[in-house]
Amino acid sequence: MNITWNAKNYETGFSFVPRYGEDVMNLITVPKGSRAVDLGCGNGTLTRILADRGYKVTGIDDSQEMITLAKETYPDLLFRKENALAFKLEEKADLIFSNAVFHWIDAADQETLLENVSRNLVPGGELVCEFGGYGCAEAVHLTLEKCFRERGLVYPRTFYFPTIGEYAPLLEKHGLRVEFAVLFDRPTPQKSEDGLTDWINMFVKKPFEGMDAGMKSEILREANERLESVLHVDGKWIIDYVRIRIRARKVSVCLK
Q: pTM above the 0.85 mark?
């Protein structure tokens, strides 16, 4: 994944991420007792819920900070620090669940990701996931892009936000038959008064790496000014999220 997490700040300021993930679980069809993976488990909140729903679940995350927090919070659950592109299960899973993870993986690595997901599922096993879809937080990214360009800088787009039409063929190519897919707007209120700045500081790290602190502060101030009339509603910052939600089932042969 192309980000380093502040695990404690994530837990206290951005609890909406796992909270929204609970709704994604409604797509799961495998029965209780099935072997499950929470891929990109973060602080373990959704791993706990999967376990409470009766699944034999393992949480996997590439962030040592997140894995440490998850183990401290839920010592009775199994967590492993591994990369989504390369993890290998001793026993293949009936379910691989993932919330708010795939958009952090570079576009060039998406097929490696899906091949590994398919490899670790039993035939008939399912992938249930949600992540950022086409247009996610575009008002924020477009505004930051303009602020960077006005200073002679390039704003790198480090996220992967596909359409259903782009992503479904990748799933099929790796033996995952799409049973359900939807792309939808999900405006997401932020907790703090400085919600936009806090959101950028948490999720948009790469573009600011190595930048002078004064210039970063100036860009953040300008972004707040330009977006206030668009994303600040009734005293709250609301980020213009778009999500893609999918259930796909592993078949015995590749579809394409």
A: yes
Give the CA angle between residues 49, 52, 54 to the nearest 5°: 120
Note the pLDDT tens digit of each residue in 177-196: 999 999 999 999 998 899 99
Tokens of 20: 């929204």
Cβ atoms within 10 Å of 233's Cβ, excluding its own: 12
Measured CA to CA, the distance from residue 110 to residue 98 in angstroms comes to: 14
Q: Which residue has the tokens 């806090």?
A: 198
One-letter identity of residue 204: V
Q: Which residues contact 129 (CB under 8 A, 6 or more apart)?
A: 24, 39, 96, 97, 98, 99, 101, 102, 245, 246
Please spell the DSSP secondary structure of 43-63, one letter per residue: TSHHHHHHHHTT-EEEEEES-
C-alpha torsion sign, points 210, 100, 190, 222: positive
Cβ(238)–Cβ(188) below 8 Å: yes
Nearest-angstrom CA–CA distance, 18 and 94? 21
* Residues 7-136+159-189+242-250, CATH architecture: 3-Layer(aba) Sandwich (3.40)
